[in-house]
Amino acid sequence: MINKIDFYFDFISPYTFLAHKKIIKLNKRNNFNYKPILLGGLHNLGGITAPAFNERKMKNMKNDCEIIAQKNEIDFVWNANFPINSLYLMRGFIFISDDQKDRFIDICFDYYWEKNKDISKKDVIKMMLSECNIDENLFSDGINNQKIKDELKNLTSDAFDKDVFGAPTFVINNKLFWGQDRLDYALEELND
């Protein structure tokens, strides 16, 4: 069995978007197992106040993300709707078929962090699903299925139990690497 890096992500995290784009630029996507979590739920479990709710952290985070994007030649626009509730999209990632996941991830991230769209709005979700060739009605039924709801809760709780406290987080060989700037460390661990 090929070892992979667990990549804990939520679409609302700008740093996770930047890490995802770096992974694509490095052509390393197949080295990662994308694991959806609900970042707000993870923060609640850990008693963490998200940077979005701290004015000084928020200002620094915006500037930091813009610098990282520029240095890595990544198209990036700070989303005017930040933060949003990503619950439906994170459930959606769990629900959709494996062959749809890569396209879904790319489109959700791009709509939010490149196109400045509010990806929590039904009309925007509908456009994204259309681009992914995902049936809107099946998606709606799927994200409201109790099994899917429970799976996202369980994935978030499992992440918390593994000491994950933010996104992006990479886990390989029982070692945790937090932040987009630790991507190289996780890849080195994979190759050791």
Please render the helix and strand layout as text.
Blueprint: E1 5-9, H1 14-25, E2 32-36, H2 39-46, H3 55-71, H4 87-95, H5 98-113, H6 122-132, H7 136-143, H8 146-161, E3 169-172, E4 175-178, H9 183-191
Parallel strand pairs: 1-2
Antiparallel strand pairs: 1-3, 3-4
Helix pairs in contact: 2-8, 4-7, 4-8, 5-6
Characterise this structure:
This protein is an alpha+beta fold. It has a single domain (5-191), classed as 3-Layer(aba) Sandwich (Glutaredoxin). It has nine helices and four strands. The protein has helices at residues 14-25, 39-46, 55-71, 87-95, 98-113, 122-132, 136-143, 146-161, 183-191, and strands spanning 5-9, 32-36, 169-172, 175-178. The protein has a four-stranded mixed sheet with strand order 2-1-3-4, with helices on both faces. A hairpin with a 2-residue loop joins strand 3 (169-172) and strand 4. Helix 5 (98-113) packs across helix 6 (122-132). The longest helix has 17 residues, at 55-71. It is globular. The two termini are 16 Å apart. The mean pLDDT is 94.
CATH architecture assignment name: 3-Layer(aba) Sandwich
Number of helices: 9
Which stretches are poorly predicted, pLDDT < 50 over at least 5 residues? none
Proportion in β-strands: 5-15%
Query: In one word, what is the shape?
Result: globular
Short description:
The chain has 9 helices and 4 strands, in the order βαβαααααααββα. The chain has helices spanning 14-25, 39-46, 55-71, 87-95, 98-113, 122-132, 136-143, 146-161, 183-191; strands at 5-9, 32-36, 169-172, 175-178. Helix 4 (87-95) packs across helix 7 (136-143).
